Each structure stands twice: as C-alpha cells, then as structure tokens.
Amino acid sequence: MSFKFGRVMAAGAAVAVAMIAGVAVAHEHMGPVPDTPAGKAAAARHQNFKQLGGAFKALVDQVKTDAPDKAVISANADKMNALAAQAPAWFPKDSGVESGVKTDAKPEIWSDPQGFAAAVAKLQAATVKLQQVSAAGDMAAIRAQVQATGGACKNCHDKYRVPEKH
Amino acid sequence: MQDGSDAPVVRARLWDGPTRIVHWALVGAIGFAWWAGETHHMDWHRLAGYTVLGLIVFRLLWGFLGSGTARFASFVKGPAQTLAYIRTLPSRDHAAHAGHNPLGALSVLAILAALVVQVVSGLFAVDVDGLESGPLSDRVDFDTGRLFAKCHHLSFSALQALVVLHLVAIVFYAVYKRADLVGPMVTGRGRFRNHPEIDFAPLWRAFLVAAVAIVLAWWTAKGLRL
C-alpha cells in the first residue's frame, strides 16, 4: 500500500511539474526583443501594461480583504492613473505586427485611431475617478469604481488586443 | 450486456454511492466551470472551481478510506500487470474487471492529476487586466498570477484530451467488447461471471470525509484565512 501510495503521488507530482515547466518555457512569449524602434516600443508597452495590471491587482487584493489597507489602495490608484495618462504614447506608429515584432496589439489600433483613442480615454476617465474615490476612502465607491475600471480594460482588450490563446 | 460465453452471470454492487455521486458531480461542475469561464461569469466560475476542489479532496481521501473499488491500492497496478492487461485488449471476450482495470487506473490517475493542477492553478490565477483572480492570488505577484492563468488554460487542454480518451475507451468497451461501463457508474451495479467480493465503506465514513472536503473547499474559497 505504501509503495503504491508513493507511486500514485510521484506520478501526480511528475505531471504537475511537467505542466508548470511547460508553461514557464512558454511564458516568455515576447521572445528576444529585436533591437529596432518597433521592437523597443512593443517591449516597453508590454512592461507598462504589466505595471498597470500589477498595480490593479495590488489594489484589488486589498479590496478583497476584510480589512483593506487604504494607503495601498490609494498608492496603486495613483500609479494606475499616472500610467493610464501615458498610455497613448505606448502605441507609436509602426509598432504593430506589420513591423515584424511580436505583439498582441491589433492593427485596428492604428487603422481606427478615433475608436482606439475613445477606448483609452474611457480608461483614463475610469482611473481618474478611481484615484479620487481611493483618496476619499469610501470602500463601496472604490468597489464600484474597480468594476468600472475593469470594464474599461476589457472594453479596449476586446476590440484592440489579440485574444489570449487557450 | 451480452456476455457471449455460457458462464453464469451474477449481478452485484460495484461502485458505492459516494464514488458515483462524485463522478457525476465532477462532470456537471467541470462542464459548468468551462461554460462560466468562457462566458466570463467569473463569480460562477470560482464557485464551480470550489465545488471541483471539494469533490477532488473527497475523491483523493476516498481513494484511501472508501470502498474496495474506490481505493487506489485496489486498482493501481505495476508495469507488469498493466502490460499483461494491455495484451488482453484485442480479445473481444471481456473478462469483467470488478472496477478499474490496470489501464483505466492510469486514466483515473491522469485525470485526478490534471484536476489537481487545474484547481490549484485557478486558485492563484490572475486575469490579464488584474481584475479577476483566484482566492489565493494575493499570495503571488501579477506575473506569477499570469503564469498560473496560463497553466490553468494548459491543464484544461490536457483535461479535455483525457476526457476525450475516457469517452473513446467507453465506446471501445461498449462496441468492441460489448461491456457496459456507463450503466454501473449510474446504478452502482454490474454483471460478473463470479461474484466480486467487494467490501463497501459505511455511509458515516462518507459523511465524515465529505465534511472534511467541504470545510477545506470553503476555507480555501475564503483565502485560507483564520
């Protein structure tokens, strides 16, 4: 029995390790960044969105707890708003897939500049308000604005970001 | 089920109630979680995930404490016995195994392993926006949470492949070997040439194990906080 128990657990662990290793290898999907203006722009964009997502996660982590740290919420809302304000500059012309870089930014960003600008403006409006309600510290208002901000992320991702491959 | 031989056929209990309930509940919960995930109903997706977590905890414990056919020790075999069983596959004469055969045992272990990876990766996963996440994702940073999300997608593909294999095997046994595997998983009873002497676990033990599984799933949903 103990021999079989060990075998069962070893098989399970082996499968789990293989899967996680596979994902870890697949994770660096940006690959080596080409040393071109387009490559640098795409890599910087990727890092900036990671910063934005990371700040949002840190804020949401607090909102989910029983005793949210409002200073952390406010600091991350500030960070998100500052990043969102810069977002239009993350999409220079010729930094899409047609320039040969690996990016999830769809060509529609540049072929539909007005629609894209409206989507970014929606994010900026959301983070401005998120910053305000976070500074004020009313948790109900913060929760509502978290949802609105998430909606602004999704709104733009649905139209202008290549869907995640499953 | 047509046995094909003139051996006497006995109808006897094969799977206990808890094993069958967990099996079909997993089918339902995984199907629902898939739909909820694809349609971005993330509150429902998480709820389905906690259900799967509870069911998996129960099934793993039941593999040590449950009835004869539910125990890992009764159906997990070494390479020699597995190879010996594989050699009997071309034969259309189905010598009914009382429960999982040595090859099916590997399928059970693979599905359970995939489900463990699926549930654990979901607990730590973070979506691309940083808005939706599993209940333990506050323990990891954004990048790690995204890594768990990718693992969550990958292990679901593995799970889908394993389910397809499971269904193909059921069709193979039904058509080629004329053995009904689905019926016993519904009714708990199967037909055998000789009475399979299976010892069944008492119901109180199932309730005890279920209580442990429910408490663990509930506490995990709450972020494992005291």
Description:
The complex is a heterodimer of chains A (166) and B (226). Chain A is mainly α. In chain A, 73% of the residues lie in helices and 0% in strands. Chain A has helices at 2-27, 37-64, 70-86, 108-111, 113-136, 139-160. In chain A, helix 2 packs antiparallel against helix 3 and helix 3 (70-86) packs antiparallel against helix 5 (113-136). In chain A, 31% of the residues are buried. The mean pLDDT of chain A is 87. The mean pLDDT of chain B is 93. The radius of gyration of chain B is 20 Å and the shape is globular. A two-stranded antiparallel ribbon of chain B has the order 1-2. Chain B is built from eight helices and two strands, in the order E-H-H-H-H-H-H-H-E-H. Chain B is mainly α. The longest helix of chain B has 34 residues, at 142-175. In chain B, helix 1 packs antiparallel against helix 2, helix 2 runs antiparallel to helix 8 (203-221) and helix 5 (102-124) packs antiparallel against helix 6. The A-B interface holds A 1, 4-5, 7-8, 11-12, 15-16, 19-20, 22-24, 26-27, 50, 52-58, 60-61, 64-66, 146-147, 149-150, 153-154, 157, 161, 164, 166 and B 63-64, 72-73, 76, 109-110, 112-114, 116-117, 126, 128-133, 137-138, 141-143, 145-147, 150-151, 153-158, 223, 225.
